[in-house]
């Protein structure tokens, strides 16, 4: 495991380094003077100069980068240009909202992805197969925001059983908070879980053709045990990979879902930051998002090795 | 097996066509035939049920979008009396918060979406393919571009969009760039996979041995043999591009108002979903139809590509 991590370190670090450089350079790529863009059209020369100094734009580029990176490592994420508050504080305020959403969506992704896949891979009755496949194909074609809008139409207009707008923290009030969370999390997770389900299903059907299944059947292993121990376990590898690579999509999807369901999470923070040229906030969020996505992929490989003894990390 | 036979018409058969090594009339005749083959092959994709449905849908959607100024001569900014009025004989989908006809704006929004994807996806395809094939010219160039594409792939589509908006601000250009950049890795990797597959084949080596320039081998011999999966990918990516536009517009980073796009309509419409569901349903349905058309088209192209 340690050996594996050391071996993977260069490529992981390269991606993180590249991301940090790109995020760092963004404000400096803005045509014209980024400080003037931040200050707005009516700002005086002194204000612009002050913002230049705040952004560190008056220092040499490499020095600026190392200052900024040093800040990221020590928890000093800088100051928001729009809110005039530390970025760390802004992120701290919104973190719980997005975390709740991502965790529940992640749970749904695993449950529905693998559940639907196993169902589609094991049902025999024709009508059931058509039903499961149909659901799956429909979901596969729909992006999260369309499912979200559909939910808002159905639950906001016709069956008003669950709230479709706003949020209540699960930590403050678990019972109400979950109600606000269910629809956004489902909208985020269902389309992605269809992709996972499709993989599990194809894999299960392929595994059933393998010779070791024939051997197990001829040995007299009960069908249930064949399904669980022989087919299912061998089919989960691709599912784990598919779930792992969707970590980043989950975060990106959360941005849209938050907008549709009027939740104030990190996605909304990033969007308002991009709209109002609040560079310092967006820079940190970009590095943060890519970091999470990279960690997700590393975890994927570790889980994969745990599932399949033939895959050795190292 | 059929693939091997087919490449023989494009591959070694092409060899005498290189400058100075074959009679000119034969070259012209052969080129014409292979070109015609490719076209009729793609045309046969449209005769499958899926391809036909896709073609009809696309002709309808593009036709309506092109005819928008004729169908709705008032333009998308014309205001009527009532704001947020429900569907009526004059306003089939009702009017928006400024009293503008929602159906008109939806159709003009479709125009915006189509203008975006029909320009951005081919651009992404050309640049991505060039990046992917660049590995044939030099190994270093190849691995550098692959690293570059890996890094782009590390950013989820919407985050790329946010970064681009941060630099150049919201608008058509930001959406265009977001779609192009997001598309590069897909095309680049497919082109490289094709390149790695073809590079070692005899006809490529033969061309090299005969002294054909690397760049000519790349464009004339390798490219035609990797173009099928790239076209399928282009069709698949059209759907992704539609959803990138919609996603960025829904969060408010898309086309600047008052210009409509399907995503921008959804952005505002979502606020009025309780009182005026048609505001969301109209653009939502068009978005789905557009996605459906390109999905069916990619399926049909895929079938044809696999048949060879």
UniProtKB/TrEMBL annotation, chain A:
Protein name from the UniProt record: ABC transporter permease
Subcellular localization(s) per the UniProt record: Cell membrane
Record bears the keyword Chloroplast: no
InterPro entries per the UniProt record, alphabetical: BPD_transp_1_N (IPR045621), MetI-like (IPR000515), MetI-like_sf (IPR035906)
CDD domains: TM_PBP2 (cd06261)
Pfam families in the cross-refs: BPD_transp_1 (PF00528), BPD_transp_1_N (PF19300)
PROSITE patterns in the record: ABC_TM1
Major location category of this protein: membrane
Transmembrane segments: 12-30, 101-125, 137-158, 178-200, 239-261, 281-307
Membrane topology according to the record: Multi-pass membrane protein
Family: Belongs to the binding-protein-dependent transport system permease family.
Keywords assigned by UniProt, alphabetized: Cell membrane, Membrane, Transmembrane, Transmembrane helix, Transport
Organism: Klenkia sesuvii
Domain annotation ABC transmembrane type-1: ranges: 95-303
TrEMBL record, chain B:
Pfam families attached to this UniProt entry: BPD_transp_1
Residue stretches of biased makeup (Polar residues): 1-11
InterPro entries given in the database record: BP-dependent_transpt_permease, MetI-like, MetI-like_sf
Subcellular location(s) of the protein: Cell membrane
Keyword Cell membrane applies: yes
Main location: membrane
Protein name: ABC transporter permease
Stretches the record annotates as Disordered: 1-35
Transmembrane regions listed in the UniProt entry: 51-72, 114-136, 148-166, 230-256, 276-298
Protein keywords: Cell membrane, Membrane, Transmembrane, Transmembrane helix, Transport
Membrane topology field: Multi-pass membrane protein
Domain (ABC transmembrane type-1) ranges: 110-298
Keyword Transport belongs to the record: yes
Family statement: Belongs to the binding-protein-dependent transport system permease family.
């Amino acid at each position: 495991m340690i050996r594996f991590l050391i071996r993977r370190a260069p490529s992981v670090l390269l991606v993180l380094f590249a991301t940090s450089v790109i995020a760092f350079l963004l404000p400096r790529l803005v045509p014209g003077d980024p400080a003037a863009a931040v200050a707005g059209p009516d700002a005086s020369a002194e204000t612009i100069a002050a913002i230049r100094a705040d952004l560190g734009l008056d220092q040499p580029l490499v020095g600026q980068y190392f200052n900024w990176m040093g800040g990221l490592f020590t928890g000093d994420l800088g100051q928001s240009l729009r809110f005039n508050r530390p970025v760390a504080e802004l992120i701290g305020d919104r973190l719980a909202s997005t975390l709740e959403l991502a965790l529940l969506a992640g749970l749904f992704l695993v449950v529905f992805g693998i559940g639907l896949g196993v169902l589609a891979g094991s049902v025999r009755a024709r009508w059931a197969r058509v039903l499961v496949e149909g659901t799956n194909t429909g979901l596969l074609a729909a992006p999260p925001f369309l499912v979200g809008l559909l939910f808002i139409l159905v639950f906001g207009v016709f069956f008003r059983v669950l709230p479709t707008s706003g949020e209540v923290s699960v930590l403050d009030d678990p019972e109400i908070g979950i109600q606000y969370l269910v629809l956004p999390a489902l909208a985020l997770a269902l389309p992605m879980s269809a992709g996972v389900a499709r993989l599990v299903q194809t894999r299960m059907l392929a595994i059933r053709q393998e010779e070791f299944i024939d051997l197990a059947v001829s040995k007299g292993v009960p069908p249930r045990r064949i399904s669980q121990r022989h087919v299912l376990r061998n089919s989960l590898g691709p599912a784990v990979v598919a779930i792992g690579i969707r970590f980043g999509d989950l975060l990106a999807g959360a941005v849209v879902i938050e907008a549709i369901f009027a939740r104030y999470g990190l996605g909304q923070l990033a969007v308002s930051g991009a709209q109002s040229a609040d560079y310092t906030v967006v820079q940190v969020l970009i590095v943060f998002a890519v970091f999470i996505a990279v960690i997700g992929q590393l975890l994927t490989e570790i889980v994969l090795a745990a599932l399949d003894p033939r895959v050795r990390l190292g | 097996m059929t693939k091997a036979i087919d490449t023989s018409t494009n591959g070694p058969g092409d060899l005498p066509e290189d400058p100075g090594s074959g009679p000119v009339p034969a070259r012209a005749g052969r080129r014409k035939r292979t070109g015609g083959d490719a076209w009729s092959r793609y045309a046969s994709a449209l005769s499958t049920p899926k391809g036909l449905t896709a073609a009809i849908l696309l002709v309808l959607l593009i036709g309506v979008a092109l005819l928008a100024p004729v169908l709705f001569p008032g333009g998308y900014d014309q205001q009527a009396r009532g704001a947020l009025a429900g569907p009526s004989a004059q306003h089939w989908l009702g009017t928006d918060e400024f009293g503008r006809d929602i159906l008109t704006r939806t159709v003009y929004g479709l125009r915006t979406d189509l203008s975006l994807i029909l320009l951005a996806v081919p651009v992404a395809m050309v640049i991505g393919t060039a990046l992917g094939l660049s590995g044939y010219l030099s190994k270093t160039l190849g691995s550098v571009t692959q690293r570059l594409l890996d890094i782009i792939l590390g950013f989820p589509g919407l985050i790329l969009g946010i970064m681009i908006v941060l630099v150049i601000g919201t608008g058509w250009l930001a959406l265009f760039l977001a779609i192009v950049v997001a598309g590069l890795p897909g095309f680049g990797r497919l082109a490289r996979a094709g390149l790695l597959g073809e590079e070692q084949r005899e006809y490529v080596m033969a061309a090299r041995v005969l002294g054909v320039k690397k760049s000519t081998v790349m464009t004339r011999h390798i490219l035609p043999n990797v173009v099928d999966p790239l076209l399928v990918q282009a069709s698949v990516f059209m759907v992704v591009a539609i959803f990138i536009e919609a996603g960025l517009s829904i969060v408010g980073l898309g086309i600047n108002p008052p210009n409509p796009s399907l995503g921008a309509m959804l952005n505002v419409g979502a606020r009025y979903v309780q009182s005026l569901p048609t505001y969301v349903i109209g653009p939502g349905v068009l978005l789905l139809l557009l996605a459906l058309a390109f999905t069916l088209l990619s399926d049909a192209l895929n079938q044809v590509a696999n048949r060879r």
